Amino acid sequence: MQATIKNTVRFDGVGLHSGRPVRMVISPASAGYGIWFKRTDIRFGDAMVPARWDAVDRSPLCTRIRNAAGVEVSTIEHVMAALAGCGIHNALIEIDGPEVPILDGSAAPFVDAILGRGIRRLDTPVMAIKVDKTVTVETDSGWARLSPADTFTMSFHIDFTDAAIGSQDKRLVLSNGTFVRELCDSRTFCRQADVDAMRANGLALGGTLENAVVVDGDKVLSPGGLRHSDEPVRHKMLDALGDLALAGAPILGHYTGHRAGHSMTNMLLHALFNTPGALRLVEVDGADAARLPGVGVVPQDMPAVA
User: Fold this and answer.
1) Annotated catalytic residue: which of 254, 258, 262, 270?
2) For residues 18 and 12, what is the distance between their CA atoms, to the nearest angstrom?
3) Mean per-residue pLDDT, 200-209
4) CA–CA distance from 205 to each of 15, 16, 99, 222 (Å)?
5) What is the pLDDT, as a whole number, of residue 205?
6) Which of 36, 158, 276, 282 is the most exposed place for a label (fewest CB within 10 A)?
7) Domain spanning 3-301, CATH architecture
8) What is the pLDDT of residue 129?
9) Where are the domains of the chain?
10) Are 63 and 242 in contact (CB under 8 A)?
11) Which of this chain's residues are annotated to bind Zn(2+) (predicted)?
12) pTM above 0.85, yes or no
């Protein structure tokens, strides 16, 4: 069955790029509602922004959505990953600014709060996207692919010159709470040189060593070091789950990312929806449900760091 959050939950923080204080509230929604953002600071006009693949305004640094009136919400990938990873299909997210709070740079605070409030099952079946034909997109920097599979699985490869990151590969079956246990606490990461360049261009103004893993060559500058030896590739997988959640339904298929990022994953969703025969909607039965993220997850699945 579809699900929503049982009780409203509030988050206060700052935007990673804007540095502006922001308050965000996630509230329950009815079956079939989907995920919508509402800009509560917009007094006139359309303040509702759909969390959907065709509303994405592509950016290499984050996932940003925009409605027809030009109202935006950015850096939505971590909260979207948390909702998908907890099996939440319907929610209203009210936010008083243009950027989701970065919190600790991972999805763990969102997951912890959602599970703490509880999940309510709704009396409507889940429809899932079954990948029937392989689709691939590529750029000069990498490629991404969705291919047929009976459950939702993900493989990711990254390759950075900084020795603190280097080359990392990971493959996971993202069903039955794996996201919560394995990925949700992995933080966004960047190179010190990239931080300097972003700040020179008015970005990453809310970034700190506490809400991002910053590396410089073979050194991890953030206090306490890495939460996992392969935290960077885990975070890339977290981002990909959040970006794929914009498909509007859980995916039954295998996602492969090779040096992929936000824009490439959105390009992949465009290719999936625009390729004849590449997908079909299927009603999830009991056997399929166990193959989806979030099914059976409990607060005890949360990593200790959260």
Assistant:
1) 262
2) 14
3) 75
4) 8, 6, 12, 16
5) 72
6) 276
7) 2-Layer Sandwich (3.30)
8) 96
9) 3-301
10) yes
11) 78, 235, 239
12) yes
Residue 179 DSSP symbol: I
Tokens 């960077």 found at: 232
Quick one: three-class SS letters along 183-211? HCCCCCEEEHHHHHHHHHCCCCCCCCCCC
Task: Fill in the amino acid letter for 43.
Answer: R
Instruction: Return the closest-CA partner of residue 232 out of 147, 176, 161, 177.
Output: 161
Phi-psi sector, 101: left (phi>0), alpha (psi -120 to 50), beta: beta
66 touches 46 (CB < 8 A): no
| Token couple for 51 | 């969390």
Is the CB of residue 120 less than 8 Å from the CB of residue 5? Answer: yes
Closest alpha carbon to 243 in 273, 271, 263: 263
H helix intervals, the chain: 77-85, 108-117, 178, 192-200, 231-244, 262-274, 286-289
Q: Is 17 among the residues known to form the active site?
A: no
3-state SS, residue 116: helix
Residue 296 structure tokens: 């059976």
Does 235 belong to an annotated binding site? yes
Mean pLDDT computed over 270-274: 98
Q: What is the pLDDT of residues 35-85, one digit of tens each?
A: 999 999 999 999 999 999 999 998 777 899 999 999 999 999 999 999 999
Which residue shows structure tokens 């997908």?
A: 279
Which amino acid belongs to residue 292?
A: L
Rounded-to-integer distance, Cα 195 and Cα 279, Å: 39
pLDDT band at 305; cut points 50, 70, 90? low
The angle formed by the CA atoms of residues 287, 290 and 292, to the nearest 5 degrees, is 120
Q: Which of 27, 80, 63 is nearest to 245 (CA)?
A: 80
